[in-house]
Amino acid sequence: MSTDHQKYSTENQSDAIRKYATERGFELVRSYADAGKSGLRIEGREALQQLIQDVQDGTADFEVILVYDVSRWGRFQDADESAYYEYICRRANKQVEYCAEQFENDGSPIATIVKGVKRAMAGEYSRELSNKVFIGQCRLIELGYRQGGPAGFGLRRVLLDERGEVKAELKRGEHKSLQTDRVILMPGPDVEVQTVRWIYSRFLKHGRSESEIAAELNERGVLTDLERLWTRATVHQVLTNEKYIGNNVYNRRSFKLKQKRVANGPDMWIRSEGVFQAIVEPKHFQKVQAIIAARNRRFSDDEMLERLTRLLQRHGYISGIVIDEADAMPSSAAYAHRFGSLLRAYSLVGFTPDRDYHYIEVNRMLRQFHGDEVARVIREIAQHGATVTRNPVTDLLKINGEFTASVVVARCRATPSGRLRWKIRFDAGLAPDITIAIRMNTTNTAALDFYLLPQFEMRTKPLGLGEENGLMLDAFRFETLDYFFDIARRVPISEVAPW
Fold first, then answer.
1. Residue 295, Cα to own-chain centre: how many angstroms?
2. pLDDT confidence of residue 354
3. CATH of range 3-138; options 3.40.430.10, 3.40.50.1390, 2.40.110.10, 3.30.1490.20
4. pTM value?
5. Which CATH number is 359-488 given?
6. How far from the centroid of its chain's Cα atoms is residue 431's Cα?
7. Would you place residue 260 in the very low, low, confident or very high pLDDT band (cuts 50, 70, 90)?
């Protein structure tokens, strides 16, 4: 949907539809509105999906569907998609009428032609708008302003007003509220800045690998900016991101019109150099890149298989995660691309997995993630002024001595058709008042979102979730756990008393 000062705001559309219905003697019995949702894809548009489902299931208790205009089905890049959804409704004997169009949707050749043109125009509008937004973002990058994404370890996002003066530091999850405000990166706490420089020193002067540096950081009790343990990948990111030398780089990856994620080549990157305060000497950064580039040279097939053989001998088994976490190894994606698949590469070094070792690695990571998340929840609750005790055997949390909570992690699985699925297994024996269910992302390396499920929603059998689960379940879905921490926060009676 559009912003509230435009003609496509939710309120304006509703008013126009009500007026249209009154003039023609229709009674409005149900409303389907996807407020604030992108019209580029049907994914995420729960109301439109519900409308189609109601029509197809025969549960729709109405005869006419009032639509503001043709573009409200969606600004799909394939104009036939919106026509398809209208056809589904008409096939079920549901009349479709457009309230703000200058033609009658009577099935005449003129109406068919006009609708086809308007559907194409709706898609073209999105393409033009996407291009204008991209040009504007590139301009801001060149001016030295940050465009999206977390700051990263050792850095902080800072908000500037229209005069370029510092307004405030943006915490994780916070966004600017005024269009005239801008965001830049600045050095974070001195302890983090020194840690970043220490990472570069260990890599350059002492020849430590990313894995060795990660192990040292974890031994010292240093956590990442996400308050998690360090891995080879997180150390590698610090060593290769140009923001640490003050460069602003954009468009490394693109997802235009929500069609396909693309990794762009360096020639397509938008960059502005030296616009942020550097916390690493550029000469040190360039030396690191030279070492990594030499290490990542193109290996021959024999060299790749030789390294894979040594890795197999060292671990006794191999998997995608084992390969990616190993130093001086091509990535698992490189093996899959070079030899057709990972299984093909395994067979060439004499390894036949009799079970899914990748699954084992993911389970190990999820167990570690679960422990980290439980610890984070405890810290956050304490920071909100509440008390919490943890059962060392079951990890059941008791907050303020009043209610209990359990943290469960749901791994992400892809079906053969590419759909994503999660399965939540409740701690039914513990009977917590609230189950904090964490849905993992597609790589099972980070949280996608959270479900706060009360005890009355608990089931003896696992709860299966898809990408979209309808209002009955998604009413309990949250992007962060801030709502839960607010529940735990102790509030003085004077703040809530009616007198």
1. 31
2. 63
3. 3.40.50.1390
4. 0.51
5. 3.40.1350
6. 31
7. low
